[in-house]
Write a sequence for this structure.
C-alpha cells in the first residue's frame, strides 16, 4: 500500500511538471553588480525579451520582432493582439518585443544583460501562484507564453502617491521570468497580516496575494526636514516581496545633482532644499 502511494505521488508530480503551458527554459546568472542571464534553449524553445536587453547568442537561434508578448492571454485574433500590445504602452514599454527561438537540433544559448548595476531575479511563476506584480521597468525576459500585462491599483491614494502610479507590470503564467533591480536585492516572506513599510521606489516585485497600499509619513518635522518624501508603501502578507537598495530613479537624481554642481546633501529632498546648502556654507 505504501509503495502504491509513493508511485501515485510520483505520477502526480510528473503530471504537474508536464502540464506547463509556457516553454520550459534553463538558465544561469553570471556576474555580481553588473549581471547577465544566459538562457539555454532546447530545439523549438523560445524566450521573449525587452528590446535592448540582448547581449549575445549562439548560432542557429532565430531572432524575430513580435507584436506584444507572444502569449495567448489576450486571444489569438488581431484585436486580442492589439489589446495585449496596448497594455504594454500604458506601462511605458514598446509595442514590440523580441523572440529568440532555437531552430537547430541541439541546445543553444542566448544571453540578456541588466541595463544598470544591480541584480537579476529569477522567478518561477509555477511556484508563485502564477502571478507577480512588479515595477514598470523591471521586466527583462521570460519563457514564451508568459503574459506581460498591467496591474491597475484599485485604491485612489495608492495610485496618486505610490510612486508607480495606477499602473504596474503584471507577469502571469507558469514559466520562468526574470526581472532586474538596482543595488542589492532582499527577498522577504511575509506571514499573514505581517506588514512591511518600504520606500515606494525600493519595491521591485511582490506576489499577487500581497496587499499593496501607501501611508502618510507622520510628524511635521519628518515631513518638513526629513527629506524622505511624504509617503511610504506598505506591503501586507501573506506572500513574497523583493526589495532593492538602489532604485534607478534615486541613482539618476544623484547623478544629475552632482553634474549640476549642487553638491550632495542628505536633505536634498526636504523643503529647505538650497536654503540648507546656504546655511552650512555649501551654497552657491
Amino acid at each position: 500500500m505504501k509503495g502504491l502511494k509513493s508511485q501515485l505521488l510520483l505520477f502526480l508530480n510528473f503530471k504537474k511538471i508536464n502540464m506547463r503551458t509556457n516553454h520550459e527554459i534553463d538558465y544561469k546568472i553570471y556576474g555580481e553588480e553588473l549581471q547577465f542571464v544566459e538562457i539555454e534553449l532546447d530545439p523549438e524553445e523560445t524566450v521573449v525579451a525587452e528590446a535592448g536587453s540582448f547581449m549575445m547568442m549562439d548560432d542557429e537561434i532565430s531572432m524575430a520582432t513580435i507584436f506584444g508578448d507572444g502569449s495567448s492571454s489576450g486571444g489569438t485574433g488581431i484585436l486580442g493582439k492589439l489589446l495585449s500590445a496596448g497594455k504594454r504602452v500604458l506601462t511605458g514599454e514598446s509595442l514590440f518585443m523580441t523572440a529568440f527561438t532555437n531552430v537547430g537540433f541541439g541546445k543553444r544559448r542566448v544571453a540578456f544583460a541588466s541595463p544598470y548595476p544591480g541584480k537579476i531575479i529569477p522567478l518561477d511563476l509555477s511556484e508563485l501562484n502564477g502571478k507577480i506584480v512588479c515595477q514598470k521597468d523591471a521586466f527583462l525576459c521570460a519563457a514564451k507564453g508568459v503574459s506581460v500585462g498591467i496591474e491597475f491599483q484599485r485604491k485612489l491614494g495608492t495610485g496618486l502617491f505610490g510612486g508607480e502610479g495606477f499602473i504596474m507590470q503584471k507577469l502571469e503564467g507558469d514559466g520562468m521570468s526574470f526581472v532586474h533591480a538596482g543595488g542589492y536585492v532582499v527577498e522577504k516572506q511575509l506571514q499573514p497580516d505581517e506588514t512591511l513599510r518600504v520606500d515606494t521606489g525600493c519595491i521591485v516585485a511582490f506576489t499577487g496575494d500581497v496587499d499593496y497600499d501607501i501611508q502618510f509619513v507622520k510628524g511635521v518635522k519628518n515631513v518638513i526636514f526629513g527629506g524622505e518624501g511624504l509617503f511610504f508603501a506598505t506591503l501586507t502578507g501573506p506572500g513574497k516581496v523583493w526589495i532593492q537598495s538602489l532604485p534607478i530613479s534615486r541613482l539618476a537624481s544623484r547623478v544629475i545633482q552632482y553634474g549640476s554642481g549642487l553638491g550632495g546633501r542628505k536633505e536634498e529632498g526636504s523643503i529647505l532644499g538650497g536654503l540648507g546648502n546656504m546655511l552650512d556654507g555649501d551654497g552657491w
User: Anything to note?
Assistant: The chain has a mean pLDDT of 76. Residues 59 and 108 are 8 Å apart (CA to CA). DSSP finds six helices and 19 strands in the chain. The helical segments are 2-17, 78-90, 156-161, 220-225, 248-259, 274-279.
